[in-house]
Specification:
2 domains, two-stranded parallel sheet, 229 residues, mainly alpha, DNA-binding, Arc Repressor Mutant, subunit A, homodimer
DNA sequence: GTCTGCTTTCTACCATACCAGTTATTGTCG
DNA sequence: CGACAATAACTGGTATGGTAGAAAGCAGAC
């Protein structure tokens, strides 16, 4: 028996965990609007628990910058920070470009089939119109790029960047034609990768990520009250 | 009077804040070694406060992945994750390369004096041997690069990446000759920027950041017990 | 009508008590 | 002596009461 064995199961879910998840999705799906006051006692009563787990959940949300705890005053749902959004998008662009370069330099072709299958599934998805799956496949495509570049860890970074703009995307419509554009991008990106054309791949990656910019600008203009700065 | 004015002063420091800072620096300076058990009751007694603020501080440290709270078992100081370190370094490299490219494309020369002064101060620093200042000036140099690229926000990202490897650097010596190498790098980087030579600037940026890799490898090999994975 | 100062009410913060798991210890039995 | 089971000690999780501080409302003075 090695005492340094760590139990990684971590099955126990506390009340605070549940509350945290609940509040987090509520905030991210904008069911709780920026500026909403979240008092400990209030939330506790609402969910029929004591103030303590509420408090802990709020502390964790504060760390994620989803709420702002103002000691002795109030806890409110934060507005979205334009600068944070800018930063997340800058990081993602930088990372994806580096992925692109490394993929061109190191990719050995072993994922060709996986890429092909992924894109086929995306096509199928557009026909059935199930967008939830499309998002999953989109993520998978970028994960494959990371793997092709020999940076499997990098998908975590991309996920983190996406998480920071997620709340904002709820405000935009899911447009079938934009999904088609994304799929087209993916085809072009794969093509450039297969021909190891770094310049073209970088250009297309940049263009691909810029598709979101229009959406973001739109949302920021039409929901000014949800933003800081 | 606009009621939406938010008081940003946020002067109030709670007991939990103090504890958090204290424990955080203790962990980062390795005064608290990875694997150390931090029981709430224990810490509370040590600092003569109740368990409550201790608990809150620990939750925040858990979010930063500096400790791991295992419900009903124990809270321990986390080992450093090699994969997290890899990720942080990958992000930093990607970002600095993008900064380099943008700086070459957009820099208008208005920071020439600031760059020069910064490098002069770094030279002076090496002569006096005050390394604390050197770190500050090193950061300033990279901040200037961000500004030259028109991405002032990006320095925040770099700071975050640095924070994730900080704890590890405590284990290495501060070597005067390596500081000299860093300064030499900075001179070469500035030169490439001034001549708008993108390829060279990227190559030198990459080389510059790789200097830390040797240190990290060394630490990881000689302190295997401080790391995960 | 406006300003000032008090009071009331709300907030998050902290202390304490208790609970439910986990771990370590110890004592028993084969 | 060793395996194992009962139990004691300890862990973090939750509930609750009290406190200090901030905001809002109100009353009185000017």
């Amino acid at each position: 028996m090695n005492t340094s064995d760590i139990d990684l199961t971590q099955v126990r879910r506390t009340t605070a965990d549940e509350l945290f998840d609940q509040l987090r999705t509520d905030i991210e799906k904008l069911r709780l609007r920026p500026g909403t006051k979240l008092s400990e006692a209030n939330v506790a009563q609402q969910y029929s628990v004591s103030r303590q787990p509420v408090r802990e959940a709020l502390i964790r949300l504060d760390n994620l910058e989803l709420v702002q705890i103002r000691p002795q005053k109030a806890t409110i749902v934060r507005r979205m920070s334009k600068s944070t959004i800018r930063q997340a998008r800058f990081v993602r662009l930088s990372v994806e470009l580096e992925i692109a370069r490394r993929a061109c330099a190191h990719y050995d072709g072993r994922l060709d089939e996986a890429f092909q299958e992924n894109l086929n599934q995306q096509s199928a998805c557009l026909e059935t119109g199930i967008f939830k799956d499309f998002n999953r496949l989109d993520r998978k495509f970028h994960a494959l790029l990371c793997e092709a570049a020999g940076c499997v860890d990098a998908i975590d970074i991309i996920d983190q960047c996406k998480a920071k703009v997620d709340r904002l995307c709820v405000l935009s419509l899911t447009d079938p034609s934009s999904a088609q554009s994304i799929l087209d991008d993916h085809h072009r990106i794969l093509e450039s990768l297969l021909s190891r054309d770094v310049e073209q791949l970088c250009a297309q990656t940049e263009q691909h990520l810029q598709r979101l910019d229009a959406t973001i600008d739109y949302v920021q203009q039409n929901h000014e009250d949800y933003f800081d700065e």
